[in-house]
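Please go through this protein, sequence plus structure tokens, and consider how the sequence yields the tokens. Keep your notes short.
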Amino acid sequence: MQINPARPRAIFLMGPTASGKTDLAMAISDHLPVELISVDSALVYRGLDIGSAKPTPEEIAKYPHRLIDICDPAESYSAGRFREDALEAMAEISGCGKIPLLVGGTMLYFKALLQGMAEMPQADPVFRAETEARAEREGWPALHAELAKVDPALAAELHPNHSVRIERALEVYHLTGKTMTQLRAEQESDSLHGQYAIQQLAIVPEDRSILHRRIAERFERMLENGFIDEVKALRARGDLHRDLPAIRAVGYRQVWEYLEGEMDYPQMVEAGIAATRQLAKRQLTWLRRWPDLQRISAQEPGGKVRKIDEMLIEALKFLG
């Protein structure tokens, strides 16, 4: 990959949960002048250590990670806030002559960082009720025709009966005076590609069964290492509940429900592993359609799991 010397360099390292991203990022740190930035919606929370597979204190001491332990579990942390925090961290790292290496599996955060986030208004219940009443009388094609007058580019993309997107586009125009096409353009002008020369890698397991085995083994190991006691401590605070983003994190919700008596231990283990597999499936779906991505195989041709040293060699060849 050709790197533009006029822009500072940045590295993205992605992959599904339990694929070895953190280990590979730390290995890269031994060879390149990088500083690590976590891209993980669970690692931002203090007290979510074992169940989030957070790097150990010893690992963090040797390989500092930014954007870990920056938020109390009672708070919500958004993709927009992540973008602000990540951009600030990247600027500081680049300013010191080092390369920001962003590592994690929260793909929405990567997307927000890369593409920017247009300011979208909150839903307007009154406008929506009026729009749906009009659709009942006139039909969605009539509202599609109305949209075509103000935002012909978007209307051309939509089927005349695509009610959800037609309604949202008209609502945004009503509330902001801007079309969705205009807001998209504003978002693209905020793209990270104009600010950094970005190299993107992903660890991709070809054999899902191997990844599923790693997920199951890791979840069992978390339980052995005190995951249930960790969730007990969170519940004991008294100010946390299961609808908070932190407690909805994969694994935490299942253990929380187990502690509330909603399932027995074997059911909790099964549910936690299943939820983690579903997370990995969503992450792989994102990665399949992610552009400009160098894929690093997590397995050898015979199916054997590759060691981090082997993946490191491939990563360093790409990174130069």
Q: What stands out?
A: The first strand starts at residue 9 and ends at 14. The mean pLDDT is 93. Strands lie at 9-14, 34-39, 65-66, 99-104, 197-204, 294-297. The first helix runs from residue 21 to 29.
